[in-house]
Amino acid sequence: MLISIEDQLEEVFRKTTYELKRGALDRKHPFRFLSMATSDSEGIGLRYVVLREVDENLDLYIYTDQRSAKVGQIRANPAVSLLFYHPRKNVQIRVDGRAELHHNDELAARHWQKVGEFGRKSYGSKHAPGATINHPTEAYQWPEEIDSTHFTVIKLVPVKLETLQLGRSEHLRAQFDRTPEGWKKVWIAP
Ligand SMILES: Cc1cc2nc3c(=O)[nH]c(=O)nc-3n(C[C@H](O)[C@H](O)[C@H](O)COP(=O)(O)O)c2cc1C
Predict the structure, then answer these.
(1) Which of 51, 63, 82, 176 lies 20 to 30 Å (CA to CA) from residue 70?
(2) Above 90 in pLDDT, residue 41?
(3) CA atoms of 120 and 81, how far apart (whole Å)
């Protein structure tokens, strides 16, 4: 259990955001991998990604290749949903927000410094992600020196968080909406 019925909404919010931050800091935390949903006029895209950072404003950071389909979808529609599940604590967290793309800018450069030599291969293949190839080995081609040409940071600025705590039959569900005055916190029916 992450939250209990005795918790005040303030405490539920604190535990929710703490757990999200742990996901970015602890490699073994189940929130390290999350599902990210994007959409455009063609439809919906859903995929797992790695949570790289959660900052003090609760902005979430994900790395990708700017040639990937998700980047095109975010350009078309910056509204993005993230989904986390913690199997041991039986808790689901949903984050809705607006995604910003950072490519070849100061923020992207700061994150690129944190990507190790091996990790850089994920953002520097000769073939664009999703390109048709004749054989799997065709994808294993990288330039001599991998630079940050395709490296992109997705910064997700959350506007709504939702925590669902599963119990045996009595579940708990809380919603947090970002307002100009701060986070509005309410219980909702599970
Ligand atoms: C556990 C896991 C973690 C992943 N992490 C990332 C990631 O951090 N960034 C990324 O671009 N793709 C990541 N992928 C690959 C994506 O799920 C996806 O296949 C790829 O990015 C292409 O997605 P798109 O065509 O929707 O853009 C990950 C896949 C798995 C299974």
Answers:
(1) 176
(2) yes
(3) 26
